[in-house]
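re: that chain from earlier
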Amino acid sequence: MRSWFVERRDLRTTNLFGASPPSAFVGSWGYPKVLVGPLVPPVRDEDTSILDASESWLDYDLAEILRFRLSLVRGKAPRRVAEARVPDSILATVQEGAMASKPIDTEIWFTKRPTLQSPFSARAPPSGPSADIAKVDLASNPSVPRRVDDLVADTDLRAGEAVTDLYDHGITQSQITRIFSVGLLGTKDRRRLVPTEWSITAVDDILAKGLIDEVRGNPWTSEFEVTGASGLANNVVILLFPGAFMFEGLEAWNLEASPTPAHDHEFAGGRTAYPDQIAGAYHATRLPVLEHLAGRRRQAGAIVFMEVYEDWVPLGVWRYRELARAALAKKPSRFANLNGAEAELRHRLRLPLENWWRASVLRGYLRGQRRITSYA
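^ sequence. v structure.
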């Protein structure tokens, strides 16, 4: 990657003009004083929206996605998170660009030539070289959806309600996350910059909570269902089972060592603590399950199995979210009992099922919980 970057002289300039996808990044280091700025490629007069549209990236291979992201030059300006409420000219320009739904011509001046430092992070997609911002301007008017404009202007609406409202009006999740991150949603006195990694998980969680009550009012599914999808060195397999909505995420790395997967779960009462074992992967896969159940007007419990293979490269938790959505869009294999579903799981997973069940809490529930109909 570094050798590829050396050949790209157009990424190493103190003055850059290009069409931002649009995209913005807020760092977490030093919180509550963070680095914020736009992501701009040295490309103009082209549709660059794919560079920040993670919803579409499963259609591309790893090398293409890395080329997308590493061509985005990141501008950095240190700002306190509360400055989102009273932005200076640089932050106001970043916020205005973040509202756009289409690529926007952006000119950025740096204090020195951008350098490639740490392109990867745990939850966010990678980005290319970076440098401190001296000045930034939008060279064209941003195309802002009316609903986005309305909710950004509404300083009496809570951020969680605004996120759900935008989602219900068809605004893409990547745009919602970007607007949330640059501090444009919420009540006037509580708006703040939110590090991009945190905002990705926060939006997943907010949207899921908005669907849980709807799903809990639906009738149960009648069968066990198994489906899955693989791509970009990850495998996601989902087991849906008849019952009240409950959820468990299991994640396995270094499969050759026969590991016991990391796991987090919630029963029908939900959870109040952060899922610290699998972190953002939990929220990234819970949301697609709830979207799927709400769309079917059904309720079920879910166990999601996530495998990480040797050629894995950190691209962000969007990969789990989109693989789960792809899996749930397929016709599932259906079974009358858990034994049949387990046989299918063995076929779809590389790690032996016994390893997964050593970590699972909901499997014990499925094996041991009796229903009231058993006594009828």
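The chain has a mean pLDDT of 94.
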